[in-house]
Design brief:
Elements (H helix, E strand, L loop, with lengths): L8 H26 L3 H16 L8 E6 L2 E8 L2 H12 L6 E4 L2 E2 L5 H24 L8 E6 L2 E8 L2 H12 L6 E8 L2
Length: 188
């Protein structure tokens, strides 16, 4: 005689719920034994969600860490406004006791000035390179020209000290050049 066992859906769901509750209780007990607050993980998730939903911040470069309701913010933001915005958003999350804002500001320079500076650097490097290529006394093709904040950097090889000095003088006498770093070497 074969015996068949039938379980109703409610019996099966009760068993699964009991198992889930048991695992939750064990997890909670483990967290309590380690001294971690079960709210910290919940707060961390809420903080990450608040940052993610804000359209003015890049939440992927802001890290959050929660300990006893205190949220630590680390990472890099574009401006002091973004730094303050992140702090205020997190401070407004229910359950957050305080915010330790360790966010760094990538650049204090306004975006328009940064773009203008890069444009000017590119322009003066191009003008210096063109002048070196056009001069018959300088091997302009062997000289690399770069610019950083108005400073021209010359790298590469020349045939003599005189050619090295001439390349530097050409660079120095170009509009918008503030300084010249001559790293040219004499070939041979």
């Amino acid at each position: 005689m074969q015996r068949q066992t039938h379980f109703s859906k409610s019996t099966l769901l009760s068993a699964l719920a009991g198992t889930a509750f048991g695992f939750s209780a064990m997890t909670y007990a483990g967290e309590q034994a380690q001294g971690d607050s079960p709210n910290d993980a919940w707060l961390d998730g809420k903080a990450e969600a608040v940052l993610l939903l804000n359209q003015n911040l890049n939440s992927f470069i802001i890290d959050t860490e929660v300990s006893d309701g205190v949220v630590l913010l680390t990472g890099e933001v574009e401006s002091n406004v973004d730094r303050r915005l992140a702090e205020e958003l997190i401070a407004s999350v229910d359950g957050v006791k305080s915010v330790n804002n360790k966010l760094t500001v990538a650049s204090h320079e306004p975006l328009g000035e940064k773009i203008n500076r890069k444009y000017v650097d590119t322009k003066i490097a191009t003008v210096v390179k063109t002048r070196l290529l056009m001069d018959r006394e300088v091997a302009g093709t062997d000289i690399d020209v770069s610019s950083r904040r108005g400073t021209i950097i010359l790298r590469g090889f020349v045939q003599s000290d005189a050619e090295r000095d001439l390349a530097e003088a050409i660079a120095r006498n170009t509009n918008d050049v503030e300084k010249v770093e001559n790293k040219l070497k004499i070939a041979g």
